[in-house]
Automatic annotation (TrEMBL):
Keywords for the protein's UniProt record, in alphabetical order: Signal
Protein name per the record: Jacalin-type lectin domain-containing protein
Keyword Signal found: yes
Signal sequence extent: 1-23
Superkingdom: Eukaryota
Keyword Transferase: no
Amino acid sequence: MSVAPFFSAIAVAVLLGSGTARAATSGSFDILSMNVAGLPAILQSNDVPGDKATNAGTIGSDFAKYGYDVINVQEDFNYHAYIYATDNHTYRTATSGGAGIGSGLNTLANFDWIDFTRIGWNKCSDASGSDCLTPKGFTLMRVKVDSGVYVDMYNIHADAGTESGDETARNANLQQVADYIDTWSIGNAVIVFGDTNSRYTRTADDIGIFASQNGLTDAWIQLERGGVVPTVESVCDNPSTTNDCETVDKVFYRGNSILGINATYFNYESTKFVQADGDILSDHNPITVVFSWAESNSLRQSDFWGGPHGTWFSDLTTLSSRSKPKASLLTFRGGSRLDSVGLTLTDGTAFVHGGTGGTQAQLSLGASEYWTTAVLCQGQKSGETRNFYIKATTSSGNMLTAGTATSDCATFSAPAGWQIVGFVGQDGDEMDQLAFIFAPQ
């Protein structure tokens, strides 16, 4: 067993101030997806009357008025500043640029997030438009709904058009997102919402890939069609006064072994987003979904510490198939920084993440001893934030440490009657990002 190093006064203050109290174990939130028709007016009118800058300001005012918890926008190009000038959401992505430069994808939210990433399409088509002239694609962010409650939210704008080249490109776009989810959202709750430019009747697109490959549910299919996928095209008016018709703007979702998520309400918000004279603000009907959420009684998660680098990993899939998991052996490696973390369950299942550098330290737990508290310290290495140090404390007061403490630390404690049994995060040769998985004792 290694001995914990001396902590500076700053570190102690940080540790004492980093509580892990949870605000709630269940709740609800709503999301909105809206293509805001932000291409330059000189290039594309979008068949929307009025001045685009004025319309963008109205859209921003409506975002503030209705206060949706998470808003994904597409085609947010040259009038982005007008939307943000009248909106009041606390958290908002920075624009990636106007048409021809940026993707037009942005998010406005009442919740904070981590690990925001923009990804461009591997394939595009100009068969019936100019999709290749601007770097469209998708984004991912891990939205923090509550303490330890995270949902991977994707914003998407797929290739447009109905020519065979467009459908080939769009099929590749959707496949790219599905494959990305399989790599970067393993074990996570996921919501994909945006402009797919697809309908179920465009069978070459394979919009059903999110259900078949990723286990996602289409909120419109669930709530408005009783689970029945349409085989006959039904195009919506704009503004739409019914939810029976199908738009290319869609919402897909799934929960995970930590977080149950269920769509409880779906609506085309068309009548909320109109000009003063009743004209439309966009050539797309905005869509909203309300979700209820509840934490599991068998597995839960801490917040994250460290930086969004390395490769994503999760022990959740394995842990969800275990009955009453318990750690019997902790194994850490560290030197100047934290190289790896690992634990072995009583059934022999072993989790190891990170590299092979540093010095190994181990702690065996007794039959009635549980890992209940962890301290992580982070710092900068080569311009990236990494975890430099870990200290584990058990229910019997035994401790195990690895790495080198910094002044930027946080304490993660399992809820009363729970224990630490696994990890989620990102790693490489060292530990970049880390969170802990809890299970009942």
